[in-house]
Every structure is written in C-alpha cells, then in structure tokens.
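Issue: copy button drops trailing tokens. Both records pasted manually instead:
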Amino acid sequence: MTLPFPLTAVLADDESHLRLFLNTMLTSLGFRVLAAAANGGEAVALYRVHRPDVLFLDINMPRMTGREALQMIRREFPDAFIIMLTSVTGADEVEASLDAGAANYLRKDLPLPELRQEIIETCIGHFSGPRQ
C-alpha cells in the first residue's frame, strides 16, 4: 500500500541507520523526503525551512528531545502534522506527546507491514486528498 496522494516529509532520528531506514521506507510509501535531522534542534530548524506535510519525530534525541521539538513546533505552527516514531513505550510519554499535539505515536520496532499501514492510515485520516 502507498499513499493515494503525494506528501512531503522531514524525519528526525539521532541514529543514522534509522534515518536511512525511515527515508527508504517513507519513499517507498510515496513520501518525498525533504530532509533528515539528527536531533530535536535540527528538526525544528528543518521544519521551519521546509514546512513539510508530515514530520516524523523520534522522542529520545540529543540537544533537544523530540517532545521538546514537538512542543516548540506546535507553538509556532499550530497546524503542524507530527507523527512520533520511537522505542519509548511508557503510557505517560505517549499521553504527553499526544497532549502536546502529536497526530500519532508509533513504535519503530513494529513489524514493517504494520508500521507502514499505521503511517498510511494516520496520514489518510488527516489528509482528505491532494495538498494544494
């Protein structure tokens, strides 16, 4: 399954092999990946420059956590569409991210078909058609 319409993305993860994996997976789903960040501060800066349709944001990153980046971006861009991708599973962290405005919170260690499906369903649920 792929996106039924084109979307742009920026991704942020402090692990280079996960950035490569996410870039490859998102491209295969039909995303145009505009940039990749290695920490929360870079994620904020890249979001400001590229204004992607979707930001994929890890929670545990150096310099600025994903949750801090989420809060900063949502204050500046209230309509930002952000999906948290992480290995952190605590209910408090999930709830805090969703309360801060994340569209969804997905575990990076989900089986690949399930992760792909969750991303597609989250985006289709939010974007009703091609972006103008």
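Record 2 (pasted manually too):
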Amino acid sequence: MCPSVDRAENSPNLFPPIEIDPTVALTRPMTRMAYAYWQSVRADRAMPMRKDLSPQAMRAFLRHVALIEIRAGDDGRMDYVMRLAGVRIEDIFGPVTGRALGQFLPPQIETRWRFALDKAVEARAPLRAASRVTFAGKTWLQAEVLLAPLGEAGKVSMLLGALEVWPVAQMATAACLPA
C-alpha cells in the first residue's frame, strides 16, 4: 500500500508532480542511510542541531548530502541557501554551494523546490519528496529526497537534505510513484 502523499501539480503539462510523504517511506539506499543517521543524532530530541552532524559519520552518503540554511527573505518569506552540496547534487544541478535558490534555479523550478522545502520547515519533521528532475531538461531522471530539520527549541534553522537520482526506466515499483 502506498503512503499518503501531498502533491504539487505545478503546471502539470510542463512539470511532473512532486509527492510529499510525511511517513518518510524512503526507497533508495542513500536517502535511507541519511535518514538513519539523522535519527541517530537526533536521539530523544525533536531534531538534531547542525553541530551534531559529522562529515566523517556521513562518509557513506556525503556525496548525496545538502545542508540548506533557512533565512528570512527581504519579502518576509523564507529564503533557502545551499550551505553545502555534495558532489552528486552538483553533478545534477551544477555548482550550487553558497548560493540561494533563485541564484541557480529558473523561477518555475524554484517554486517547485520551495514547495517541498516549505513543507519540511512547516512540519518541523523529516519527509520524503519524490518527482522527476525538471532541471536543465533532465526529466529522464527520477529523484527521491530526504528533507530533515536541524535546529533547536522547535525552530528549524537548516535542513539536512539527501538526494538520490536514477534513470526512470529503473524506477522501483515499491516507490508508489506515477510512471
């Protein structure tokens, strides 16, 4: 049975939906490892803090990791800055470390990313996001993303992201995603 999902249908003729899964039913090895690590450093708290993370402890999946800083934007909405992007992320999206979303994403794709990031911040809990990649015409790639909050006292200051992509033809049937 598929987990319940929240779907963003951003221009269905142009972009595939993004499925948001609050049950965090991850299907890919790298995102599963990242989630297990997040849970281990979280311990009995609602979320770990950034200082709890260790690159050495994340060695097995570090190529797939993003640390996304949350800032108050000039317009009052949240802004997201890629503080760290692993090699695999930059293979797909180019050099994004140190850049805000609007500095490397076209507006329609930035809206898609904000949808998922906003959901994770609002939930103050980890979630799974899944969709086809829409960046730079790479729609032949399927993506699964873990978005897990970092912060303290119930305030999310960063997100730990983990991304795994694969060709659509290899999409796992257990993922419950549209073909």
